[in-house]
Design brief:
With about 400 residues, the protein is an alpha/beta fold. About 35% of the residues lie in helices and about 20% in strands. Bound molecules: L-homoserine. L-homoserine binds near residues 148, 240 and 251.
């Protein structure tokens, strides 16, 4: 398995190049990003200062400079790079005023706010490294990480897309509660505690189904589901993000528009978009998003050929043979959590048609789904810093 810390090191210049403002580094994505940047020695090649919307003046996580005020645009404008995991509201309040004031630095963002703007590239360099470099050369300075399920899906099926074998994709997701934020995780834990307390108080000779009913009923207690709107412990929530008005959730809409933007398809002078759709579902898993994917192939390829392509796919892809024990051991959120491995397995032809294949994939939505593409974008910016006028 590719643990985060075991990623092969790439050469990083030790010369400190880019003056970088780190914003939103304490939250769930931000702290995973910090951990990865430390593991990879990224801080040795940038001059980082830490900003906060609420803790200016406090000691920094590293270095000597106290934490700076993240709402001070004048101060932020002194930096060549701003890397933010602070969230969409911060981006809305900060990004455009900075640009309007003439700031031409590199903005790297975890939030979705800017992703679909024409002047923003969604970064997932194992997939669109060439597009990122082209964009930098042509003066693009705004980069956003993609939606987590989008990035993880593309990492999983990239070998099939690259070979031109994918006509359309349907993905049914099983998204961890941490994708909904730290408060949602804490709420799920509290729901579970509440269930356990209720079970402890159940009559001694209760039947199994009576116990299940006690556990389920305990979740109807008012105040237990304020964050997500309905209990998730022992359950699931078949809607993620807001309603778009056409029956899709915003998470489902992102699936098709962001994927095709990363793949450079569907725009002017680009190849046709790959139709993608599916249902996004929140499940009571702490970390890792899973997806059950159906792919309509462009031709009825032998399953061995598909397996071989996935097996030799890329260094983060772990191909899991379609057998029960390997699948339940290695193709799960528990097995993948905290690693850079994107596991893919259960690959088999559908009974309905020889040109349709199904597969299951699991990836850590805080790593490849969020933090990893951002730190890699920063590294690309560092590599190009001599030629970029920042
Ligand atoms: N949109 C994602 C989710 C966040 O709701 O799961 C990324 O983890």
């Amino acid at each position: 398995m590719m643990t985060a810390a075991s990623e092969p090191k790439e050469n990083m210049s030790q010369k400190k190049t880019l003056k970088t403002a780190m914003v939103g580094w304490r939250g769930m994505v931000g702290s995973v990003l910090m951990q990865r940047m430390e593991e990879e020695g990224d801080f040795s090649s940038i001059e980082a200062d830490f900003f906060s919307t609420s803790q200016a003046g406090a000691p920094p996580p590293m270095g000597d400079r106290p934490i700076l005020d993240a709402s001070n645009l004048k101060r932020l404008a002194e930096y060549q790079v701003i890397l933010t995991c602070q969230g969409g509201s911060y981006t809305e309040a900060t990004y455009q005023p900075l640009r309007d004031a003439g700031w031409n630095g590199i903005w790297i963002d975890a939030a979705s706010t800017l992703r679909m703007q024409d002047d923003c590239v969604i970064v997932l360099d194992p997939v669109n490294r060439a597009a990122i470099h082209r964009a930098l050369s042509s003066g693009v300075r705004t980069f956003a990480g993609g939606n987590c399920t989008v990035s993880l899906l593309l990492m999983a099926i990239l070998p099939l897309i690259e070979r031109g074998w994918v006509e359309w994709v349907n993905s049914m997701t099983y998204q961890a509660v941490s994708g909904a934020g730290a408060q949602a995780v804490l709420e799920m834990i509290e729901q579970t505690r509440h269930q356990v307390r209720s079970l402890d108080a159940a009559p001694e000779h209760a039947t199994v189904m009576q116990l299940a009913e006690v556990a389920n009923l305990s979740l109807t207690t008012p105040g237990l589901a304020e964050v997500q709107g309905a209990p998730i412990a022992s359950s699931l929530l078949p809607w993620i993000d807001s309603e778009t008005g056409d029956g899709r959730s915003r998470e489902e809409w992102k699936g098709v528009v962001e994927s095709n933007k990363i793949l450079e398809r569907g725009g002017a002078n680009q190849p046709e978009m790959i139709p993608m759709d599916g249902l996004c579902v929140r499940v009571p898993t702490f970390r890792c998003h899973s997806q059950a994917v159906t792919i309509k192939l462009t031709e009825a390829l032998p399953i061995e050929q598909l397996n071989r392509a996935l097996l030799g796919g890329h260094r983060w892809l772990e191909f899991v043979a379609n057998a029960k024990q390997t699948s339940i051991e290695r193709l799960t959120p528990l097995a993948v959590s905290g690693s850079l491995t994107v596991a893919v397995g259960r690959v088999r032809k559908l009974q309905q048609a020889d040109d349709m294949v199904t597969l299951f994939t699991v990836g850590d939505q805080l790593l490849w789904g969020a933090a990893e593409p951002l730190r890699r974008m920063l590294r690309i910016a560092v590599e190009r810093s001599d030629e970029l006028e920042l």
